[in-house]
Amino acid sequence: MSIGVLGGCTQQQTPPPVAGHTVIIKNFAFDPTIITVKVGENVTWTNDDSVPHHVKADDSLFDSNTLSNGQSYTFQFTAVGIYNYTCVIHASMHGRVIVE
Predict the structure, then answer these.
(1) Residues 80, 99: contact at Cβ < 8 Å?
(2) Residue 71: CB partners within 8 Å, gap ≥ 6?
(3) Contact 16, 51 (CB under 8 A)
(4) Is 97 exposed, middle or buried (0-12, 13-18, 19+ CB in 10 A)?
(5) How far is CA 36 from the centre of its chain?
(6) CATH superfamily of 20-99
């Protein structure tokens, strides 16, 4: 009876890091207003304004809750589509994420 040892047959693969994009909230506006990302990528909204903001998708897919100055919210987009969003606190603020 012989017992063989197979070396190097197990291999762990680490998934690649998720790409990310940033939207800055400043002067009561989203910058950029429209951003294009790929499926699986993240978008992070960072409040760089002196007042709170609340990012929410028009279809309620994502919802940051209230972000004070310096706070961020990240969402990973897993499906192709066009996602419009607003600031719940300041209804005149609009943005769009296009996922390809």
Answers:
(1) yes
(2) 46, 47
(3) no
(4) buried
(5) 11
(6) Cupredoxins -  blue copper proteins (2.60.40.420)
Closest CA to 53 of 88, 24, 97: 88
Tens of pLDDT, residue by residue, the chain (100 residues): 445 444 444 455 555 556 789 999 999 999 999 999 999 999 999 999 999 999 999 999 999 999 999 999 999 999 999 999 999 999 999 999 999 9
The residue count for the chain: 100
CB 46 within 8 A of CB 24: yes
Task: Return phi, psi of residue 25, to 5°.
Answer: -100, 115
As a whole number of angstroms, the distance between CA 60 and CA 74 comes to 15
Residue 12 structure tokens: 């762990």
Tokens of 47: 């409040």
Q: Is the pTM of this model over 0.85?
A: no
